[in-house]
């Protein structure tokens, strides 16, 4: 179980690192746009992403 979580975390870091590595200028402007958004909107977006992740996780482990 710990191995699976470590692999999932490693994959998330790889994916998260690819965007700024491949498109640094676009990534910078995207981060600047996000910084201008209200905290509530960022929180809602984050909660939606977490819900999708939990759904996919449950779907993967239920089969």
Could you walk me through the main structural features you see in this protein, from its secondary elements to its overall organization?
The protein has 63 residues and is mainly α. Helices cover 92% and strands 0% of the residues. It is built from three helices and no strands. The protein has helices spanning 2-22, 24-36, 39-62. The longest helix is centred in the C-terminal third of the chain and has 24 residues, at 39-62.
How do the SSEs run, as a string of H and E?
HHH
Number of strands: 0
- Mean pLDDT score: 92
Main sheet: strands, sense, barrel: none
User: Ends: how far apart?
Assistant: 16 Å
CA gyration radius, whole angstroms: 15 Å
Helix content: over 70%
What percentage of amino acids are in beta strands? under 5%
What is the helix tally? 3
Indicate the overall shape: flat
